[in-house]
Amino acid sequence: MSIELWLGYVVACAIVVLIPGPNIIFTVSYAIRDGARSGFATIPGVLFGALIAMSLSLAGAGAILAASAFWFGVLKVVGAFYLMWLAYSLWTSPVEAFQSDGANKHKPLGRLFGQGTLISLLNPKGPPFYVAFVPQFVDPGGPVLPQFTILIGTFMGVAFVNCVLWLVTACAMRRHFHSPRVLKLFSRAGASCLFAASVLTLRGSRAG
What we know:
The chain has one domain (3-203). Helix content is 77%, strand content 0%. It has helices spanning 3-18, 22-34, 36-59, 61-67, 69-92, 109-121, 126-133, 144-174, 180-203. Helix 4 crosses helix 5. The chain starts with a helix and ends in a 5-residue tail after the last helix.
């Protein structure tokens, strides 16, 4: 793989991950609700889920999902209902006033990691997208496995930087949220976005 091809891939990845999806909404919502600690705890889970989904996709599972309407439909329904459950949880969970001393109660970090992982794993658009996107940057004249390893690692790195930038922005915004009422409004806005994402997931097609 040439350096020019790899740099083109980096730019393409940056464009792809820049648009906020359910993963970013999830991270930003908890960062503003509970602070950087909770927001940052979602990022490893999101990336771990994406790593598994991307690796399985390029190993062949994504091609099966792209070709099978039944299995794509199953993943789509499961993913959509999981997003709905997250939206319900975020909508109904109690919100406390912002405390600069970090005394707010936080959701268990392991649970946030697990939820972030499942959001990435249950995204039905992920496997077909990875199968269609990544091979475009593979040099057919070279060994495939090392190139896939580089491309997956690069995508994870770009996604990590994107998540951190969104997290920093959310934490900066959090300073302006000092009342439970405002935090609750933001939480419900995030919940509404997750619910909208679940509806779009159900309405989506393999070609989309």
